[in-house]
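Researcher: Re-running this chain for the archive, since the previous output was lost when a drive failed. Same request as before.
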Amino acid sequence: MKSLSNATICTKVSNVVQVHDGSPIHCEQTKESFKSPVSGTALAILQTREVESKTNETERFMNLLERLALQKYYSKNMHTGDVCVVKSAMRTKHPRTEQELASYFLQKLIMGNYEARYVRVQSENESYETMNNNENSNYDDFFKHDDTLSRRKGLATNTQTHIHPMDLQMTIYHCGDNFVRQYIYTKLSFCQFALPLLVPNPRSSEIEFPLWAFRQINKNWKCRDTSTNTLQTKSYEIVNADTPLVSFIRFGESPTSKSQILNSLLSKQKHGVFFNRNCKGSSRNGLLMEGVTEVAWYCPSGRDDDVFNDCITFTNLHGDARRHRKQVQFLHEISSYQCDTDVRL
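Model: Regenerated structure tokens:
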């Protein structure tokens, strides 16, 4: 992972992020990165508040399980027989209660429908057309800070109590056994979504690396041999693919969504690879994505408009990196490049 032959990675992202080559960075530099946004005293206060809020987060998580009617499945008590059940009635309606959200999400995912990630309860006063309005997140939206922030404030005002779409996905993850997780990962990959790579336990300080869940994921891409100018087709199980890895992290608060930056770089489809603050259903009351590191792959198709000529792995740490030292240390060890979003953007 440390070797990186394609130097264009740096030039492609350096206009929006601070890029560090992974090899020459020393521990002292990493420590300074943590100290630079806040003083040591402020960091200690942040850590104290994090410990004090853990109990509250656990209570919120248990309440979330109750709202979704998934208490009996936690933890790892959901099996493939509970997931692979086709209910045709769900294909023609939106869920009316929070207890139906998990079933509706899983049915959408089984059918390979990317809208599974945007499922939410339809209120009695909300029309079908309103529920199905797609959020367009193209590259130009990234620069519209005023519009972005105003939309987010509106979402936070109007959707304070609804269940965050990624909380739904991650709750099912925590309830599923290893085979269910592997099945869900395969379907999420089919829908061109990012996958959880490092997952904090909602009831402890442990961080999980679910390698087994990636076992059935295969990636195919085409790259051009510069010496012969011919296309080469490559196909690998992703756990065995040796690709450069670029990690995105954020220090402090930023008006810019790094997930949206990544989407503009990676996605040519109408839905983003990474869920971000501007996606449909997003709100400030999310619980389970804090500290989660997601992973996605750029797989070129051999066309002239490819951003990169070879497969590149991208990871995205959600939340303030100052509060997630273990994840940052892990990403530093495996990354070819580490990209820090600049809070001054």
